[in-house]
């Protein structure tokens, strides 16, 4: 069949086969689709756009890659060794954004914990947190005023969430909110695995004049169950150098600024 002559199958069937084709190859171009499915470039692009709108793939320049569902997250203590070098670089780069005298919010998670490690020598900081790990780490920092949020303990993350936490947040303001997320995608935004935690995270985002999201490169191009916010909510996303350049470009197209550490 010549290119441009459409096969006698429905578009739904063709798109199902196309999705399998993308998942098998991990990255495809419009030209490869045209050759493999004997369809025109215009039809290939329409099919890709349809799959992207359905949240099945991510469009990149000249083609597409699979949109991966974020895997279930292990408890925080089991994640301490994952991407440790990258998280340390992210922690140092993010801490450099904090000035002596700032009031900051530090969320839960292993990447934020690396930020906290790099703030121990700062002067006259006020740190608001719902993370027990951050509290324990910074408890002996004499130049830091620590504000701990109460609430319901989420044991897997060693953090406080829920209505009491959110009520306390409503009374507070911070120069910077530094928070981690489970998954980041240019179109589908910032997403988390656990809905009650996401509701608390939404309240956290509201208290900062600036929002900094920290995440290692494995969190990108993925989606999780609970929508938190568009990527443009973050004034800055700090990640590692391994982030794919096309994912970075897609984030920039949605108004997100990215810093690679």
Tell me the number of helical segments per DSSP (H or I, 4 or more residues long).
Answer: 9
Strand order of the largest sheet: 7-6-5-10-13-16-17
Q: Given the helix and strand composition, which structural class is it? A: alpha/beta
CA-to-CA gap between the ends?
A: 49 Å
Number of E-type strands: 17
Strand content: 25-35%
Based on CA atoms alone, the radius of gyration comes out at: 21 Å
- The helix/strand series, from N terminus to C terminus, equals HEHHEEEHEHEHEEEHEEEHEEEEHE
Report helical residue fraction: 25-40%
What does this molecule look like?
The chain is of the alpha/beta class. Helix content is 34%, strand content 25%. The protein contains nine helices and 17 strands. It has helices spanning 11-25, 30-37, 41-53, 84-95, 110-117, 132-138, 163-169, 195-205, 245-253; strands spanning 28-29, 57-60, 63-66, 68-69, 103-106, 125-129, 144-148, 152-154, 159-161, 174-180, 183-185, 189-192, 208-214, 222-223, 226-229, 236-239, 258-260. The strands form five sheets. It has a seven-stranded parallel sheet with strand order 7-6-5-10-13-16-17, sandwiched between helices. The model is unreliable at 1-7 (pLDDT under 50).
